[in-house]
Amino acid sequence: MPKIIVYCKNIEASLEVPGGSTLAEIARSLEGRLGFEPICCRVNNKTENLGYAVYGPKQLEFQDRSTGSGPRVYTRSLCMMLYASVEAVVPGTKLTIEHSISHGYYCRLGGFDDVPAELVAALKHHMLALAGADFPFERHQKLTTEVMEMFERQGLHSKAELLRTTRQLYTTYYTLGDVSDSYYGALAPSTGLVDVFDLIKYKEGFLLLPFDPDEPERAATPIRQEKMYRAFTEYLLFNRIVGVRDVGELNTYIMQHDAADIVNVAEALHEKALARISDDITERYRCGGARIVLISGPSSSGKTTTTKRLAIQLMTNLLRPQMISLDDYFVNRECTPRDATGDYDYESLYALDLEKFNADLSAILAGETVELPTYNFELGCRQYRGNKIKLEPGSILLIEGIHGLNPELTAQIPEQFKFRLYVSALTTLSIDDHNWVPTTDNRLLRRIIRDHKYRGTSAEETIRRWPSVRRGEEKWIFPYQENADAMFNSSFVFELAVMKDYAESILSGVPSDVPEYAEAYRLRKFLSYFRPISASLLPSTSLLREFLGGSSFRY
Description:
This protein has helices spanning 23-29, 70-89, 117-133, 144-154, 157-166, 226-242, 247-256, 259-286, 303-316, 354-365, 439-454, 459-476, 495-507, 517-527, 545-548, and strands spanning 3-8, 13-18, 21-22, 40-43, 46-48, 53-54, 58-63, 95-101, 104-109, 138-143, 170-176, 179-181, 198-202, 205-209, 211-212, 215-219, 292-296, 320-325, 370-376, 381-389, 395-400, 418-424, 430-432, 435-436, 486-489. By secondary structure, it is α+β, with helices and mostly antiparallel strands. It has a five-stranded mixed β-sheet with strand order 2-1-7-4-5. A five-stranded parallel β-sheet has the order 18-21-17-22-25, with helices on both faces.
């Protein structure tokens, strides 16, 4: 083959290689210069597996398991090793990887109401043996009809149904020994690169724990998330009842039924959950507590609309809700802390003027009239515009912001006066039995749409900022979520089908010559599995209207 020129970002140099060389062969030619063993590579800012062959000039950026696309590649590979182990230890048993929780991924086995600890240990032992043997993950592509038949024979019915509804001519899948499976992105070259993990008994199933992001040489340590587990379990039961557990079933529902039906049922579930939370708050209020409701949650979880809808429910219980946004207590921009990259750290608790907030809150609870600030995001400073508040008999204060569950925020307020509500989009829809929809993807897509529509921010910029947002959440929000008195799951089983057309259009504007293109491309591919639902079916009070527009609430 003729020689071609590729540019390797890792060593900032051009290389002459034979046309048709695989990424793995190019990586081997760089042994000693990369400084790490790659698990994948971004080719022209698109993530590819190392079996990808290069036939023309390309820009290459090799990545290890802890950088860029590496963690996703690692986790997908780990999931296939788990499936292969299930097939080896308990052949024919259905594996379901349901969702992320407690720093890992919660798994169930068909036919087991409670998976025995001894079986979990046997599965772990087999996975370790696979890692030690360094078997290759082999990538294949066939006519979709043939792949569907293969999956049906293996009992992978959710995968077959997804392929049936997406109607692609060809489908990519992987094999590990005699086991075939599909994953929606690249896998590692071989099992030897996927050697850090743990498998532990958890609830009725077990947790698959990948490496710790902060210490990649050891497995992640699980944390206690009882309330989060109950919230997931409740919504998974709802999904089973309506018969929409994965994207294939959602697509089939859209094709065979009136999509308005599932929209209306899911919206009613939200309303019922908020009514139940409102009743709990009201009962505490009438017993002398719950004078303030602190509403917290990560970015794009829908805190603002949740607060407004909760206020309506409290009014039906004959209370008088009044609202405060923590965003109005940001310090002036030049006083904002900065993160490790030098950007303003708006997720930091200390981006708020805690002294002023607590002084105002204490005065309000004492019955005084207080003028509230309004933060001008264009100028980066607080302003006073005559917005005054005074609690009357029957009044209850709703305070919305990402730090609501942090004890330091309201350290001066007696505990009996607080009710804490945690809001998050806990996505319970799966792509198929072995591929889940990450909660972070759901929120990122919401934020991309909202930032583009209301803040004039490009998808490229939102994606660029997202890792900083996520770091802030890990530090300032997630450690306190179990402090909540109640949890509200703001996700909808149908919402990605509604956001599909909006998000795809915005993501298509990310140019291919920037690093953010890799994430934009991945999200576009992910959305391609969904059949669309028209946003016109959403009621004007829907939480999704906060991001898509058309809400009857004022923001």
